[in-house]
Amino acid sequence: MESISFLDDVPKILRGRVALVDGTLHMSAELKGNLEMVSFVGSLRRRGILTYEWHRPEEFDNLYSSLASRSGQGENEVQQYAIDLIAKAYQNDASDIHLVDHGRYTMIRFRCLGMLTDHTQLEADFGRKLIACIYQKLSQSGDACFSPSERQDGRIAKHDYLPPNVHSVRVHCEPIECAQAENGVGTSMSLRLLYDATSAKGALSERMSVLGFTNEQSETAQFLTRRTGLTIISGPTGHGKSTFLKHVMESMTERSPEKAYFSIEDPPEYPLKGVRQVLISSNSKAARAEAYRDAIAGAMRSDPDILMIGEIRYTEAAIAAIDAALTGHSVWATIHANNGFGIIARMVSTLATHFRNPLEQLCDHNVLAGLEYQRLLPMLCPHCKLRLLDLKPEEREQYIPPDVSARLRRVLDDQEGVCVRGEGCEHCRKRGQIGQTVAAEIIATDQEMLGYLSAGNMPRAHEYWTKEKEGRSYVDHAVDLIKTGLVDPYVAEERLGVPLNFNQVFVEGIR
Questions:
Q1: Total domains, the chain
Q2: In the 8-state DSSP scheme, what is residue 279?
Q3: Whose CA, among 129, 235, 236, 424, lies 20 to 30 Å from 211?
Q4: Residues 225 and 335 in one domain
């Protein structure tokens, strides 16, 4: 479904409740009898628009809200194109939009199920106007004007600009080297659509099951929600850290509503039911870290029971998280790291300028409670996936390269259930994949493990977790998903960022 044009002169009171789609005007039923609506329809009849349909308000919201005339096309054609672009990305289940000004043209790509696909290419001048419009007119930002030569951040939160179920859009711009641009500088703009695409509700175990976690992982996470101390969630950008943290926090508010929950986010990504989401007050880049620290300190003075720190970006935030844990609070935070135990190294590098021995501070039994790492893997469409063993030997290389196939044999003796990505069908929009699931590792610390970590003996800590605590890594989790035919081996390895036999190589490397 696509809007051919947006109406130039929609009265303000009607905006967002009417949509012109393929020559038919769709209207929300609460407008029946409205005098401005009657007058507006009369003006459209004189312009040759003769087909009209009324819809129940909830039906209009579900089907046409994203195509509705909202901001007035006559006021700004570029602005309306930007609104349409976000709506189109939403209709394609995209998590991100990439706009890249290459000087002579602007390329727009959507990230769907973790993979970038080309959407369209725009003429150079219009593309630059679109990028500037998104930053200056649609987003809220610390800078009033868009500057192609500067790194800038913003956030689109106004409902009129967003499709249904999208809470906000995070905006980030980077200047890039561009030989074809007049001044040699182009722009890369990334838009992250923030919405919870899952239907997870209820207790944490129910939510984690929907997200794809195992029963054992769910039990460990539930154990961590009952502990004081710091639990840190990690993973690459776009791999579900914020979604997981949202469900952890909301499940705790439902289980224990008598407690006080606070979050510090820069900016808030999702509305969190039952959580007081503290805003960062400074727009100055130089003062951002200090403002973040002050917000955490302010939350600590507000008598919290549970504190969530959206992301540990600054040394000040890491220090504040440790201090909060030492005072007996339960603290949940995210950070970028390359695996569960890699969080330790990442935190140490963040704290190194403040503490003489960061490991001693972080790995105190009163501080570090748990570590979690996750990546999202696209799931195979059940209608068109192909069973690997049903393919002829000469056909298999078309689906799995020989080196990946060799590594698969090392980790899986039984390939009976292994499936690969098919050609696509009407059920998966010809993608061969539908939805995403998680491959994760969740580590609950104890005194012995913290002793190894505090001493800097990471290999022994890892061995203790895997052998004595029967911990399973995110790669183990991914291999299980491959074995049951839920994910494609080649796609899984691409998304994991490590080979399928990484655990074997790692163990051999530390002996």
A1: 3
A2: P
A3: 424
A4: yes
**What is the spatial distance between Cα 205 and Cα 408, in angstroms, rounded to a whole number?**
31
For residue 378, give the nearest of 479, 237, 487 by alpha carbon. 487
- Kindly state whether residue 399 falls inside one of the protein's structural domains: no
Residue 433 lies in a domain: no
Q: Is the peptide bond before 267 cis (omega within 30 degrees of 0)?
A: yes
Query: 287 lies in a domain?
Result: yes
Please check whether residue 359 is in contact with residue 319, taking contact to mean a CB–CB distance below 8 angstroms.
no
Q: Is residue 52 part of a domain?
A: yes
Residue listed under structure tokens 């961590």? 224
pLDDT, tens only, 147-192: 888 888 888 988 889 988 888 899 999 999 988 887 889 999 999 9
Q: Are 372 and 340 in contact (CB under 8 A)?
A: yes
> CA-CA distance, 282 to 290, in Å (whole number)?
9
**pTM for the full model?**
0.78
Tokens 């039911």 sit on residue: 273
Write the CB contacts of 115 (distance below 8 Å, at least 6 apart in sequence): 378
Which of 176, 194, 212 marks a domain boundary?
194
- The CATH number assigned to the domain holding 170 equals 3.30.450.90
